[in-house]
Design brief:
Largest sheet: 6 strands, parallel
Oligomer: single chain
CATH superfamily of the largest domain: P-loop containing nucleotide triphosphate hydrolases
Strand content: 5-15%
Number of helices: 10
Order of helices and strands: EHEHHHHEHEHHHEHE
CATH class of the largest domain: Alpha Beta
Structural class: alpha/beta
Number of domains: 2
Length: 213
Protein backbone atom coordinates (compact mmCIF):
# COMPACT_ATOMS: atom_id res chain seq x y z
CA UNK A 1 0.00 0.00 0.00
CA UNK A 2 1.30 3.46 -0.94
CA UNK A 3 2.24 5.72 1.92
CA UNK A 4 -0.78 7.90 2.67
CA UNK A 5 -0.96 11.61 3.40
CA UNK A 6 -2.12 12.00 7.00
CA UNK A 7 -3.87 15.21 8.02
CA UNK A 8 -4.20 16.02 11.70
CA UNK A 9 -7.43 17.91 12.39
CA UNK A 10 -7.53 19.96 15.56
CA UNK A 11 -8.99 23.09 17.11
CA UNK A 12 -10.33 24.48 20.34
CA UNK A 13 -13.44 23.19 22.07
CA UNK A 14 -16.62 24.11 20.16
CA UNK A 15 -14.65 25.39 17.17
CA UNK A 16 -16.47 23.04 14.79
CA UNK A 17 -14.01 20.16 14.40
CA UNK A 18 -16.75 17.53 14.30
CA UNK A 19 -18.66 19.38 11.58
CA UNK A 20 -15.50 19.63 9.48
CA UNK A 21 -14.73 15.95 10.03
CA UNK A 22 -18.27 15.00 9.01
CA UNK A 23 -17.91 16.96 5.77
CA UNK A 24 -14.66 15.16 4.96
CA UNK A 25 -16.33 11.82 5.72
CA UNK A 26 -19.17 12.65 3.31
CA UNK A 27 -16.51 13.09 0.62
CA UNK A 28 -15.34 9.52 1.27
CA UNK A 29 -12.24 10.48 3.26
CA UNK A 30 -11.35 8.10 6.13
CA UNK A 31 -11.77 10.01 9.41
CA UNK A 32 -10.17 8.69 12.58
CA UNK A 33 -11.49 10.26 15.79
CA UNK A 34 -9.26 10.30 18.87
CA UNK A 35 -12.26 11.04 21.10
CA UNK A 36 -14.09 8.00 19.76
CA UNK A 37 -10.98 5.91 20.33
CA UNK A 38 -10.82 7.23 23.90
CA UNK A 39 -14.41 6.12 24.45
CA UNK A 40 -13.52 2.65 23.21
CA UNK A 41 -10.52 2.55 25.51
CA UNK A 42 -12.66 3.48 28.55
CA UNK A 43 -15.60 1.14 28.12
CA UNK A 44 -16.70 -0.87 31.19
CA UNK A 45 -14.20 -3.65 31.74
CA UNK A 46 -11.47 -1.94 29.72
CA UNK A 47 -7.88 -1.44 30.83
CA UNK A 48 -8.23 2.30 30.36
CA UNK A 49 -11.24 2.64 32.64
CA UNK A 50 -9.61 0.47 35.30
CA UNK A 51 -6.49 2.66 35.19
CA UNK A 52 -8.55 5.85 35.49
CA UNK A 53 -10.47 4.48 38.49
CA UNK A 54 -7.21 3.41 40.12
CA UNK A 55 -5.92 6.99 39.89
CA UNK A 56 -9.11 9.01 40.39
CA UNK A 57 -11.45 6.73 42.29
CA UNK A 58 -14.87 5.34 41.44
CA UNK A 59 -16.43 8.81 41.69
CA UNK A 60 -15.87 9.18 37.94
CA UNK A 61 -18.42 6.43 37.24
CA UNK A 62 -22.16 6.75 36.83
CA UNK A 63 -24.72 4.41 38.39
CA UNK A 64 -24.33 1.93 35.52
CA UNK A 65 -20.58 1.65 36.14
CA UNK A 66 -19.73 3.62 33.01
CA UNK A 67 -17.39 6.58 32.80
CA UNK A 68 -19.34 9.77 33.53
CA UNK A 69 -17.69 11.85 30.83
CA UNK A 70 -19.49 15.09 31.64
CA UNK A 71 -18.47 14.89 35.30
CA UNK A 72 -14.88 14.01 34.43
CA UNK A 73 -14.72 16.83 31.87
CA UNK A 74 -15.86 19.37 34.44
CA UNK A 75 -13.26 18.14 36.90
CA UNK A 76 -10.32 18.17 34.51
CA UNK A 77 -11.15 21.63 33.17
CA UNK A 78 -11.05 22.91 36.75
CA UNK A 79 -7.87 21.10 37.80
CA UNK A 80 -4.76 21.13 35.60
CA UNK A 81 -3.04 18.50 37.75
CA UNK A 82 -5.98 16.14 37.40
CA UNK A 83 -6.04 16.75 33.66
CA UNK A 84 -2.41 15.67 33.41
CA UNK A 85 -3.21 12.47 35.33
CA UNK A 86 -6.03 11.64 32.91
CA UNK A 87 -3.82 12.40 29.92
CA UNK A 88 -1.04 10.20 31.31
CA UNK A 89 -3.47 7.27 31.41
CA UNK A 90 -5.33 7.79 28.15
CA UNK A 91 -2.84 9.31 25.72
CA UNK A 92 -0.62 6.20 25.30
CA UNK A 93 -3.66 3.98 24.78
CA UNK A 94 -5.27 6.34 22.30
CA UNK A 95 -2.03 6.96 20.43
CA UNK A 96 -1.36 3.24 20.01
CA UNK A 97 -4.87 2.62 18.68
CA UNK A 98 -4.67 5.66 16.41
CA UNK A 99 -1.36 4.49 14.95
CA UNK A 100 -2.89 1.10 14.21
CA UNK A 101 -5.87 2.66 12.46
CA UNK A 102 -3.63 4.97 10.45
CA UNK A 103 -1.62 1.98 9.27
CA UNK A 104 -4.80 0.23 8.11
CA UNK A 105 -6.38 3.17 6.24
CA UNK A 106 -6.24 2.92 2.44
CA UNK A 107 -6.94 6.18 0.62
CA UNK A 108 -5.03 9.07 -0.97
CA UNK A 109 -5.24 10.82 2.39
CA UNK A 110 -7.00 10.51 5.73
CA UNK A 111 -8.07 12.77 8.57
CA UNK A 112 -7.03 12.12 12.18
CA UNK A 113 -9.14 14.30 14.47
CA UNK A 114 -7.14 14.88 17.65
CA UNK A 115 -8.27 17.75 19.93
CA UNK A 116 -4.91 17.95 21.74
CA UNK A 117 -2.76 17.38 18.67
CA UNK A 118 -0.58 20.47 19.16
CA UNK A 119 -0.14 19.78 22.88
CA UNK A 120 0.88 16.14 22.31
CA UNK A 121 4.16 15.89 20.33
CA UNK A 122 3.83 12.12 19.98
CA UNK A 123 0.48 12.54 18.24
CA UNK A 124 1.76 15.40 16.06
CA UNK A 125 4.60 13.18 14.88
CA UNK A 126 2.04 10.71 13.44
CA UNK A 127 0.64 13.17 10.87
CA UNK A 128 2.10 15.00 7.90
CA UNK A 129 0.12 18.22 8.08
CA UNK A 130 -2.06 20.00 10.64
CA UNK A 131 -5.44 21.52 9.81
CA UNK A 132 -6.62 23.91 12.53
CA UNK A 133 -10.30 24.80 12.78
CA UNK A 134 -10.61 28.21 14.39
CA UNK A 135 -13.27 30.80 15.22
CA UNK A 136 -13.56 34.04 17.13
CA UNK A 137 -13.63 33.69 20.94
CA UNK A 138 -17.14 35.13 21.17
CA UNK A 139 -18.41 32.56 18.69
CA UNK A 140 -16.65 29.78 20.51
CA UNK A 141 -18.09 30.88 23.85
CA UNK A 142 -21.65 31.01 22.52
CA UNK A 143 -21.33 27.59 20.86
CA UNK A 144 -19.89 26.02 23.99
CA UNK A 145 -22.63 27.39 26.24
CA UNK A 146 -25.31 26.17 23.84
CA UNK A 147 -23.74 22.77 23.18
CA UNK A 148 -22.81 21.82 26.74
CA UNK A 149 -25.62 23.71 28.48
CA UNK A 150 -23.16 25.46 30.83
CA UNK A 151 -23.17 28.99 32.20
CA UNK A 152 -20.78 31.67 30.97
CA UNK A 153 -18.42 31.40 33.95
CA UNK A 154 -18.00 27.65 33.40
CA UNK A 155 -17.62 28.07 29.65
CA UNK A 156 -14.95 30.75 30.05
CA UNK A 157 -13.05 28.53 32.49
CA UNK A 158 -13.14 25.68 29.97
CA UNK A 159 -11.79 27.93 27.23
CA UNK A 160 -9.10 29.38 29.51
CA UNK A 161 -7.80 25.88 30.27
CA UNK A 162 -6.99 25.27 26.60
CA UNK A 163 -4.02 26.18 24.45
CA UNK A 164 -4.01 29.80 23.36
CA UNK A 165 -5.65 30.01 19.92
CA UNK A 166 -2.78 32.12 18.54
CA UNK A 167 -0.28 29.39 19.40
CA UNK A 168 -2.58 26.72 17.98
CA UNK A 169 -3.01 28.60 14.71
CA UNK A 170 0.74 29.20 14.47
CA UNK A 171 1.27 25.41 14.63
CA UNK A 172 -1.17 24.75 11.78
CA UNK A 173 -0.26 24.20 8.16
CA UNK A 174 -3.81 24.97 7.02
CA UNK A 175 -6.37 27.17 8.81
CA UNK A 176 -10.14 26.99 8.43
CA UNK A 177 -12.01 29.89 10.02
CA UNK A 178 -15.43 28.54 10.95
CA UNK A 179 -17.48 31.72 11.31
CA UNK A 180 -20.06 31.29 8.55
CA UNK A 181 -22.91 28.91 7.86
CA UNK A 182 -22.91 25.25 6.87
CA UNK A 183 -22.65 26.02 3.14
CA UNK A 184 -19.54 28.14 3.64
CA UNK A 185 -18.00 25.41 5.78
CA UNK A 186 -18.76 22.73 3.18
CA UNK A 187 -17.27 24.87 0.42
CA UNK A 188 -14.09 25.30 2.46
CA UNK A 189 -13.83 21.55 3.08
CA UNK A 190 -14.28 20.88 -0.65
CA UNK A 191 -11.39 23.25 -1.40
CA UNK A 192 -9.22 21.53 1.20
CA UNK A 193 -10.19 18.14 -0.18
CA UNK A 194 -9.04 19.10 -3.68
CA UNK A 195 -5.83 20.55 -2.21
CA UNK A 196 -5.07 17.39 -0.23
CA UNK A 197 -5.78 15.12 -3.20
CA UNK A 198 -3.25 17.15 -5.19
CA UNK A 199 -0.68 17.04 -2.40
CA UNK A 200 -1.12 13.28 -2.03
CA UNK A 201 -0.69 12.70 -5.76
CA UNK A 202 2.45 14.81 -5.91
CA UNK A 203 3.68 13.68 -2.48
CA UNK A 204 4.26 17.34 -1.73
CA UNK A 205 3.23 17.21 1.90
CA UNK A 206 4.99 20.40 3.03
CA UNK A 207 3.62 22.86 0.50
CA UNK A 208 2.51 26.26 1.82
CA UNK A 209 -0.93 25.96 3.32
CA UNK A 210 -4.42 27.36 2.85
CA UNK A 211 -6.28 29.81 5.02
CA UNK A 212 -9.98 29.66 4.36
CA UNK A 213 -12.88 31.80 5.61
Amino acid sequence: MTEMLKIGLTGGVASGKSSVAADFARLGVPVLDADQIARQQTRPGSRGLAALCARLGDGILNEAGELDRARLRRRVFADAGLRKQVEAVLHPLVLAALAQQLAQADAPYCIAMVPLLIEAPAARARVDRVLVVDCEPATQLARLMSRDKVDEVTARAMLASQLDRTRRAAAGDDILMNEGGLKQLQDAVHRLHAFYIELAAQRDYRRAGLRLP
